[in-house]
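Tokens in:
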């Protein structure tokens, strides 16, 4: 049996000392690594004025944790694929995988909160499930096809590019 931890950073009432919340997260990851946990997971959320789920970039968080640990797998639970340019997301996850020496677990999401989509990608607004799902599926298809020689024209996103890899 494997054990992992979902490290949902919470800092209610601690906005002035967010650096301490991050220090505590680092201590938690080191403790888990030293005590045989299999994985630690970080999620992507934005504009959390309530003080919950305070990681805007779990890939960057994972890089910090990778530098401080040796064995624990670093999970992305999840990267909100509808907020990312697909190539940038793939490159950043690949970089984290290299920095961690292959310890990355990838999870992707469609997005949950309208206020995040309103500020990052209005096409990803979860109030429009059909459009949100189409955007996610299109991004996922691009991610799956990376590594192949492919031409792909984005249809749903406001990002307009021709992918030739």
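Residues out:
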């Amino acid at each position: 049996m494997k054990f992992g931890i979902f490290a949902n950073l919470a800092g209610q009432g601690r906005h002035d000392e967010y650096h301490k919340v991050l220090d505590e997260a680092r201590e938690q990851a080191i403790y888990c690594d030293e005590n045989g946990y299999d994985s630690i997971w970080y999620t992507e959320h934005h504009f959390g004025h309530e003080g919950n789920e305070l990681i805007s970039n779990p890939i960057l968080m994972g890089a910090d944790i990778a530098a401080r640990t040796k064995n624990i797998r670093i999970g992305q639970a999840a990267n909100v694929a509808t907020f990312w340019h697909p190539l940038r997301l793939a490159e950043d996850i690949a970089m984290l995988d290299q920095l961690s020496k292959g310890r990355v677990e990838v999870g992707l999401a469609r997005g949950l909160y309208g206020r995040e989509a309103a500020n990052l990608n209005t096409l990803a607004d979860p109030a429009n499930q059909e459009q949100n799902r189409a955007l996610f599926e299109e991004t996922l298809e691009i991610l799956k096809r990376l590594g192949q020689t492919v031409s792909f024209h984005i249809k749903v996103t406001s990002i307009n590019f021709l992918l030739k890899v």
